[in-house]
Amino acid sequence: MPELNTRWDIFCTVVDNFGDIGVTWRLARQLVAEHSLKVRLWIDDLHAFERLCPDIDIEASQQWQQGVEVCKWPTDWPPTEAADVVIAAFACQLPSAYMDAMAEREKPPLWMNLDYLSAEDWIVGCHGLPSVKYKHVQKYFFFPGFQEGTGGLLREKGLLERRWQFQQSPQAQREFLQGLGIDRAEDALLISLFAYENSGLASWLETMASDSTPTHLLVPEGRILADLERWLGVDGLAAGAVHVRDALTVQILPFVRQDQYDLLLWSCDFNAVRGEDSFVRAQWAARPLLWHIYQQEEDVHLDKLDAFLERYVQGLTPAASEAISGLWRAWNAGETMGDHWQSTRKHWPELQKHADAWCLEQALQADLAAALVQFYVNWI
Ligand code: TRH
């Protein structure tokens, strides 16, 4: 890849949750660290950002974080020179003054829409195609994805090697977990749970509590806590709380910084994740996982769920495939989880091996940051 002395602007509006900022912050850091680019990240909500990166100053209109120029999206847009490459994350609308600045450049910038992640087949046909124009500035679709012909997934250089080393070291894992106040029993299944509200949770907890082997469930503070409180019969769950119900220990964790969240996923035997970014990180953890997909209108998210499952289960025996698919579908429909969890547990060694193989297969693709840079190189 040639040395690129270019400026990139990434625009992020926080619609809800943490996925918008989670993805753009990760991408911005990687473009700086691995491609030596000058990156500005424009964000409209620094509060959401602070949860992932507590070092930020939420009052600052401009600040440097890990080599990225982080700018608060101003209400009144000041005169700003447009960058060489402009990324609008998740179809966010750029400020009109900035669009004019793009059009005024002698050489128009490469303008891309970084789309939502999907495993659906149509993604391949649309990735890289021209979208709308503003004056003479052309916008392009850029689709992340799991298959050849897409923009790939965010994956930092050396990520899998770092993960492997961590997972090979019981001491590193113990130290990390102890830092979060987690005292893991040797024989307990360790599970992390990051999810939206879910009426299926109670039946899953019930099954884990009555299991013959112990489970230690780690729950970062978030939207699932109300369901958990209801089942435990307690109020005001907060980080640090530990409750034991028969074979199940439930422990509430603080929402940790993004890099620490990776270590949490790497430490657990099973990860329940959601949305987009944690979903991808759990795949890099190479452990069996459960995805709570972000709900969309008219249930279009269910097509996305099926498209992913169809890909993911390839190579599994029919019984293991049925078990994991059943578990994911039940979770996303808020249905009873007990039988599905028991079937999943029966196929554990196979599902573990498969998670590893899936991770390696996905890592054969170019990572998303490299694919974006390559797209730019091809474009110039
Ligand atoms: O927060 P999310 O539900 O985000 C969602 C989705 O991205 C969805 O597709 C999008 O439309 C919507 O936002 C607007 O889930 P996601 O994508 O996993 O983002 C969570 C981020 O938070 C991710 O970067 C991981 C990070 N995280 C931490 O840094 N620390 C933590 O303790 C936890 C639990 C998460």
Number of extended strands: 14
Query: Distance between termini?
Result: 13 Å
Shape: globular
Mean pLDDT: 96
Q: What integer value in Å does the Rg equal?
A: 21 Å
CATH architecture name of the largest domain: 3-Layer(aba) Sandwich
Strand content: 15-25%
Largest sheet: 8 strands, mixed
Strand numbers in spatial order across the main sheet: 3-4-2-1-5-6-8-7
Structural class by sheet pairing and helices: alpha/beta
Give every kind of bound small molecule, once each.
2'-deoxy-thymidine-beta-L-rhamnose
CATH fold-level topology of the largest domain:
Rossmann fold
Element order, helices and strands?
Answer: EHEHEEEHEHEEHHEHEHEEHEHEHHHHH
GO molecular function: protein-arginine rhamnosyltransferase activity
Catalytic activity: dTDP-beta-L-rhamnose + L-arginyl-[protein] = N(omega)-(alpha-L-rhamnosyl)-L-arginyl-[protein] + dTDP + H(+)
Family: Belongs to the glycosyltransferase 104 family.
Function: Protein-arginine rhamnosyltransferase that catalyzes the transfer of a single rhamnose to elongation factor P (EF-P) on 'Lys-32', a modification required for EF-P-dependent rescue of polyproline stalled ribosomes.
